[in-house]
Amino acid sequence: MIKTTLSLFLGIYLLTGCSSDPSKNTPLIAGPDIINGFTLPAAPDESLNNSTPSGIDSNDNGVRDDLERALILKIDTLPISSKKYLTKTYLEEAKLKGYLLTLENPTDQDIFNSSNDYLESPYVRCLPFSESIDHETTLFMNTFVNDNLFNTEERIRVASEYQTRLDKDKLAKLISSKVYSREGYFAEKKECKLLYEENK
């Protein structure tokens, strides 16, 4: 039996909002309108964007505009060939990790469901199977997302509060229950390869 790689991401998810430092904010810089097939949203007004935890999401894709710009621009500078796939992956991660910041009064169940949705995301689940994205790049991008997603004292406070309320034992049991047979493991690996081919 091979345990699902979801367990690798529990620690990553639980680190959300804990290692971030507002002083590490990525500056909003000018760039082309479209990069690797992704359209950059306009740079938001910084004061207005940082006045609430949810910030500004002008294209309603679930990712704050400043974070979306930072991700697209940063990934374009990385020495990898799969920039489109990597951008899609980390926009999805940013959306799932930042979802709770868009809710005013989430319940404990909302918090648990949010972490489960993150772990169930095909893009998140497939990261360990990607032959074109090395482990070092994965760790770098996870940190980059956290530092730019939780980039104000208020966002860090809210994320820390939700993290404290997360039923970690319940989540760990859910992860432990996701065990694949050898055939299931390779079936998921094959599905991940198809996901990459469709989005590279």
Could you walk me through the main structural features you see in this protein, from its secondary elements to its overall organization?
- The chain has about 200 residues and is mainly alpha-helical.
- It has one domain (about 1-200).
- Helices cover about 55% and strands about 5% of the residues.
- It contains 10 helices and 4 strands; from the N terminus they run E-H-E-E-H-H-H-H-H-H-H-H-E-H.
- The chain has helices spanning about 5-15, 45-50, 65-75, 85-100, 110-120, 120-125, 135-150, 155-165, 170-175, 180-200, and strands spanning about 1-5, 35, 40, 180.
- The chain has a two-stranded antiparallel sheet. A two-stranded antiparallel ribbon has the order 2-3.
- A hairpin with a 2-residue loop joins strand 2 (about 35) and strand 3 (about 40).
- Helix 3 (about 65-75) runs antiparallel to helix 4 (about 85-100), helix 3 packs antiparallel against helix 7 and helix 4 (about 85-100) packs across helix 7 (about 135-150).
- The longest helix is centred in the last third of the chain and has 18 residues, at about 180-200.
- The chain is flat and about 50 Å long.
- The two termini are about 30 Å apart.
- About 35% of the residues are buried.
- Mean pLDDT is about 85; it is low at about 1-10.
